[in-house]
Every structure is written in C-alpha cells, then in structure tokens.
Amino acid sequence: MKKIALVLGVMLSNLNYAQIPVNENATPEAKQLLIYIASLGDRILSGQHSYNEDPGKFYESVYKITGDYPAVWGTDFYWNGQNDPGERVVKSAIEKAKEGALVTLMWHVGRPTDSPPYDWSESVQNKLSDENWKQLLSPGTDLHSRWLKQVDHIASYLKDLEKARIPVLWRPYHEMNGVWFWWGNKPAAYKKLWKMLYNRLTEYHQLNNLIWVWNANAPRDIPFDEAYAYEGFYPGPEYVDILATDVYHYDYEQHDYEALLKLAAGKPIALGEVGELPKPNILQKQPQWSWFMVWSNWLETANTVNRVQEIYNYSKTLSKDEIKK
C-alpha cells in the first residue's frame, strides 16, 4: 500500500532517534509508524473511537464539528451481538487506512470461560476465580485451550490487515490496573497473560504489523472503582512499544503523567481513551502525549462544540491531512 508507506515515512530526515519495535520482525510499515510517532515531540495526533456497529459514526462527527478528520481512527473487536463484527472491523480499517488515517484497534473480549457473544456485565466485566486464572495460565488445560481459541480467532482478522500492509496500534486487555474487567486487578497474572498473548500473536501467528500499546487507566482512589499505580501491571519494555492511559472526568493529573513518562523510559506515551478532551493549557504542561482518542459518544455528551474546535485548532494538534506534511 504505497500511499500508507508514503504517509508514514514523512519527516524521517528530522528524527532525533529511531524507536525500535519490540518485535524484531516488524513490517516496514509498522517500523515507519513507530518511528513517526516517536518523532512527534510536542505535537499530538487527534483521534476518535467509534463503536463497531457503526465504525465511522463519531469519526464523521468530528469532521462535521471541525472540518477536519482525526489522524487516528479506532474501533473495537468486541463481539456483543449474534454476528461476529470482525469482518466489518477489518473492512473499515482498510477503508480508513486508504484515506490516510492511522488505525488503532482494541479488544473488549469476554472471559474465556464463556462463549460469544459476550454479555458486558456477565462476561467482560465479570471475574475469574483464582482457580480459573491458574488454569488459564497453564498450557494443556481446558481453559487455556479456550483462551487459545479466542486469540486464534482474533489473529485471523489481524492477519487480513497485515496482508493489506496496514500497521495496527494494538491495545488489548486495556485498563488492567482498574477493578472492572475480568483481566483487571491481578498484577502478576495479568503480566503473564500479556506475555502469553504477545507470544501467541508474534511467535505462533507471526503477526508483524502490530505495534503493542500497553494501555492502563489513570490511577484513582474511588471506592469500588479504583485504578492502581501503573508500574505493578507493566509487563516490561521488551513486550511494549507504546505506553498509554485512559483519562475520564478530566483527570489529567500531572503526577500521573510524569509517572507514566518515567515508566516509559523513552518509549512514546499516549492518551488511549479520553472522555473530556484536554485543554491546550494541559497539553502545554504535558507535551509528550503522542495522540488522544475520544471515546465514541463522549465526543458529544462530555464535550461542547467549542471544546472540540478548540483542541482541533490548537497549533500542536495534527489532523489526518496534517500527518502528510
């Protein structure tokens, strides 16, 4: 896909350093994308998520509000209806990449003890017992085999994107430091789970178009809705290309930003999901965010038109067309 290679190859002559993917066999497109993101400095890529039943809806809403398309388009492989959304996600990702957008994909997957479609509260946000975790992490068990089936299924769609030469900012098992997903609030087990996923997709399936985005939640001390410190859940620099966090309710705490920067140790950081957009004065104090991605309908329910226009008009914000310059 020559157009994508051209878009992602911009500004290479001005790099201060080259970010090397953790996957030594990363595709040229993935390498170029990571280099580009590492070169952004204090500029930030705009981004917008849409639900997979209508993958372009809120992306188009941004254009209606600002006259610009976001630089980063995102959606989710979450299977919550009778029909598997995978083909629709792949088709939309290819369309957006051809238009010049960068692609980020996530995976709200249900517990491996369950079968698709996955109910939100009864599966995605339910718990696994300690015994379930032990079996999940033990090759040869029935539960581990069920997990492999989940991963192999999603790998088939990621392979379609690799064949199309599309690099993916891949952020699975996100918000792991929170208490609300089945994979959350289990630091040691989670790190093993992340490494298992990395090895299955990278070594077994030889998927080389993935940029691995480890995406936590901004720490918070809300009873029954806690999110704990980043470092306890980090699987290590050899398994992560970019570190991201999710910020809702305008919780752009400076000490959390600095904690993530320290943990990243030179790797790029990003705002994987946001509710309320950061104001320009926040970005001036936190200039190293590589991109922000507004969560679907929060674009309209948590932000005013003026707020959206303000951040898209900010001199450091890059829209889709501006990543080509």
TrEMBL record:
<feature type="signal peptide">
    <location>
        <begin position="1"/>
        <end position="18"/>
    </location>
</feature>
<dbReference type="InterPro" id="IPR022790">
    <property type="entry name" value="GH26_dom"/>
</dbReference>
<dbReference type="GO" id="GO:0006080">
    <property type="term" value="P:substituted mannan metabolic process"/>
</dbReference>
<feature type="domain" description="GH26">
    <location>
        <begin position="28"/>
        <end position="321"/>
    </location>
</feature>
<protein>
    <recommendedName>
        <fullName>GH26 domain-containing protein</fullName>
    </recommendedName>
</protein>
<dbReference type="Pfam" id="PF02156">
    <property type="entry name" value="Glyco_hydro_26"/>
</dbReference>
<dbReference type="InterPro" id="IPR000805">
    <property type="entry name" value="Glyco_hydro_26"/>
</dbReference>
<dbReference type="GO" id="GO:0016985">
    <property type="term" value="F:mannan endo-1,4-beta-mannosidase activity"/>
</dbReference>
<keyword id="KW-0326">Glycosidase</keyword>
<feature type="active site" description="Proton donor">
    <location>
        <position position="175"/>
    </location>
</feature>
<comment type="similarity">
    <text>Belongs to the glycosyl hydrolase 26 family.</text>
</comment>
<keyword id="KW-0378">Hydrolase</keyword>
<dbReference type="InterPro" id="IPR017853">
    <property type="entry name" value="GH"/>
</dbReference>
<feature type="active site" description="Nucleophile">
    <location>
        <position position="273"/>
    </location>
</feature>
<keyword id="KW-0732">Signal</keyword>
